[in-house]
Amino acid sequence: MASYKYRSHKFEYYADDGDIYIRYQREYLDPDGQPLTPITETFNSAKIQDPAKIDPFSKQPRKVLAYVKNQLVDRKYSEMSAFLPYAPGDARLKQHIREILDHDRVICGDYHGEVYQKG
After folding, report:
1. Residue 21, strand partner residues
2. What is the pLDDT of residue 29?
3. For a Cys-Cys bond, which of 43, 83, 97, 109 suits 66, CB 3.0-4.6 Å?
């Protein structure tokens, strides 16, 4: 990936097992300061301004791997991870996925559930 500026957003992540973690999402920006990572209103509802540290997390969070238009690379798109804070069964999860896929720069996206890693 080329060198991009980004903003970090802390958010509450509701894990499949019911635990709540503090995580962060990087929002990558193009040279004009326009977002490449699809940050949505539903995601913004999970953001926090807590000074607490990011929690250790032994699994990969659920996300949409979004393919976004990016004229700065040869293939004209980039792959951006948009984390999904809300657990399965929460209506906000479905709404968040819809908002990501409806984002102006998103061409398409793949849903990835939590991935647990053996210790």
Report:
1. 13
2. 92
3. 109
pLDDT means per 10 residues, the chain with 119 residues, are 81 93 92 91 93 80 96 92 96 97 96 84
Record the tokens describing residue 15, joined without a space: 């894990």
Tokens representing 10 are: 């802390």
Residues 10 and 27: beta-carbon distance below 8 Å: no
Residues 6+ apart with CB under 8 A from 108: 66, 67, 101
